[in-house]
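User: Hi! I have a protein structure encoded as tokens and I'd like to know what sequence might fold into it. I'm fairly new to this, so please keep things simple.
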């Protein structure tokens, strides 16, 4: 299990963050991808019984936002307020994102601390005044190296022309931190994941870092540099600090100590350099502990390119949830694309997995078992009187699935692998039912026959008890429905209170539980 930050009082939190998203437009599938992943990780750790803090938010300064607001004839603040309240927060609520906080970089709790942080660096001599000239991509809010540009001076990510900028800036002595960063990567092999992301950053830092321009003077939509109000702080420096300001940096030391350092910063691979090189160097410069892990997810692709505002599929997250439901949406992307790799969304693949994995393998299992307990035992869970090797194999299968899913999802962020382990167990239980054929055994009225029937149905229901808990972080509403259908709550308590560590203990759901056939978990899809 990953270590968590601890305080003198022993209070600690497993702290997970998403990038804070630019609010120049409404969230799309790509933003939701990272946010759902963070939510599943968060809920998994809660299910372990850990204290967790999950942060997301919005990045509201910089030229990109300023120009979008201008183009829409409103002030940048008005633009941000509208988008946050009408588009971003409602989508996260709709997708059942259980974040503990939502930070906006225009909030004083953030801007005041950003100024203090940068002032501290200035006082320490880490910041100096200089001049910078180079190609700048507004989409990335980043100076590019001329060698990185595509033909026609296009940004390689946005495929749009860069702007040539020349201005007097303040610079952070980033170049001085190369050796310390490399030493940190060396001593903490899990710091940047997956391995491809780690290798990319190690190469980059080995090539040598340049000092970083951390202020801009050609526009004013940003946090003013405290000692020179003609400049605003570069939007990325402002944005990265959200991870610290949101948990009390400079304002609530007890909270900061109990939460910082972050256990996992989830980021898209496009913004890895900022998180794995610049952010740690900023923290080193102010003597703060470094985050424990930076995990770079791959891109959702559209026609082989990163899905972005300009090349959207035309499909919004809500288009998919209205067809497939929120839980299937949460499931699909994490199940279909190995976390850390790029992947394409396909309506056909989503439909196929919905039908075969969710409706047939899982949904049918849950409804068949409840229906048979209803039919043969009046909905009262019977006792397993004659468990033998076939039942032992199921108990063993469950123990293996729990152990694998816990390591893969909770520690390795291998969501596809972990969900795969849970669904292998679902398949195993289906196979067990096909072999044991309780519908045939039911025809045998002898005491042995009835004992056998009871044992088979108990075994299936007890397996579903554990499956409900394992799927709760991924598909919260469906798991709750299953929990209710098993009549588990009066005996075992709330689903959220079940612990991963107890899951493989066989026989927790007691005979006598009232099993009811609830609504169909995954109804047949309407034609797309
Ligand atoms: N504001 C910065 C981040 C600052 S963090 C201190 C930013 N914002 S963004 O709105 O462009 O969102 C970037 C993040 O959204 C990516 O890092 C990634 O997590 C997610 N994604 C955006 N498009 C994506 C895909 N097409 N595929 C997967 N994730 C994507 O950069």
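Assistant: Happy to help. Inverse folding works backwards from shape to sequence: for each of the 528 positions I chose a residue that suits the local structure. Here it is:
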């Amino acid at each position: 299990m990953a270590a968590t930050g601890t305080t003198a009082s022993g209070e600690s939190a497993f702290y997970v963050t998403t990038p804070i998203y630019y609010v120049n437009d409404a969230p799309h599938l790509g933003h939701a991808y990272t946010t759902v992943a963070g939510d599943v990780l968060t809920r998994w750790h809660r299910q372990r019984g850990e204290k967790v803090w999950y942060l997301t938010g919005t990045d509201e300064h910089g030229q990109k936002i300023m120009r979008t607001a201008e183009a829409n004839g409103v002030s940048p603040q008005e633009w941000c307020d509208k988008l946050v309240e009408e588009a971003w927060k409602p989508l996260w609520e709709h997708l059942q994102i259980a974040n503990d906080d939502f930070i906006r970089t225009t909030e004083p709790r953030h801007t005041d601390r950003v100024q203090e942080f940068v002032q501290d660096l200035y006082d320490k001599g880490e910041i100096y005044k200089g001049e910078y000239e180079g190609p700048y991509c507004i989409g990335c809010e980043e100076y590019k190296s001329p060698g990185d540009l595509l033909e026609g001076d296009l940004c390689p990510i946005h495929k749009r022309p860069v702007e040539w900028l020349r201005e007097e800036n303040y610079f952070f002595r980033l170049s001085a931190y190369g050796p310390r960063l490399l030493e940190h990567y060396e001593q903490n092999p899990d710091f940047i994941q997956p391995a491809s992301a780690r290798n990319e950053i190690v190469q980059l830092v080995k090539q040598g870092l340049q000092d970083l321009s951390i202020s801009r003077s050609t526009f004013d939509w940003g946090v003013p540099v405290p000692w020179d109000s003609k400049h605003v702080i570069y939007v990325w420096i402002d944005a990265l600090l959200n991870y610290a300001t949101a948990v009390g940096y400079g304002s609530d030391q007890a909270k900061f100590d109990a939460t910082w350092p972050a256990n996992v910063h989830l980021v898209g691979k496009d913004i890895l350099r900022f998180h794995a090189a610049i952010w740690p160097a900023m923290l080193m410069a102010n003597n703060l502990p470094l985050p424990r892990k930076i995990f770079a997810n791959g891109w959702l692709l559209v026609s082989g390119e990163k899905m972005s505002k300009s090349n959207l599929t035309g499909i919004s997250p809500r288009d998919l949830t209205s067809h497939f439901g929120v839980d299937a949406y949460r499931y699909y992307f994490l199940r279909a694309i190995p976390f850390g790799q790029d992947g394409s969304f396909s309506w056909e693949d989503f439909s196929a997995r919905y039908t075969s994995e969710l409706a047939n393998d899982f949904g049918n299992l849950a409804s068949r078992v409840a229906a048979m307990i209803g039919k043969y035992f009046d909905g009262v869970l019977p006792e397993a009187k004659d468990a033998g090797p076939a039942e032992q194999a199921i108990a063993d299968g469950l123990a293996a699935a729990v152990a694998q899913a816990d390591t893969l999802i909770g520690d390795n962020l291998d969501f596809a692998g972990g969900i795969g382990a849970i669904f292998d167990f679902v398949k195993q239980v289906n196979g067990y039912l096909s072999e044991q054929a309780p519908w045939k055994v039911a025809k045998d009225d002898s005491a042995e026959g009835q004992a056998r029937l009871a044992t088979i149905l108990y075994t299936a229901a007890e397996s579903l008890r554990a499956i409900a808990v394992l799927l709760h972080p991924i598909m919260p509403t469906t798991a709750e429905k299953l929990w209710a259908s098993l009549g588990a709550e009066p005996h075992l308590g709330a689903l959220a209170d079940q612990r991963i560590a107890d899951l493989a203990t066989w026989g927790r759901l007691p005979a006598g539980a009232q099993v009811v056939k609830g609504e169909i978990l995954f109804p047949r899809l309407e034609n797309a």
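A useful reference point when you look it over: Residues 19-22, 30-31, 33-34, 59, 239-240, 242, 267-268, 270-271, 297, 299-300, 306-308 surround 5'-O-[(L-methionyl)-sulphamoyl]adenosine (CB under 6 Å). Feel free to ask if any position seems puzzling.
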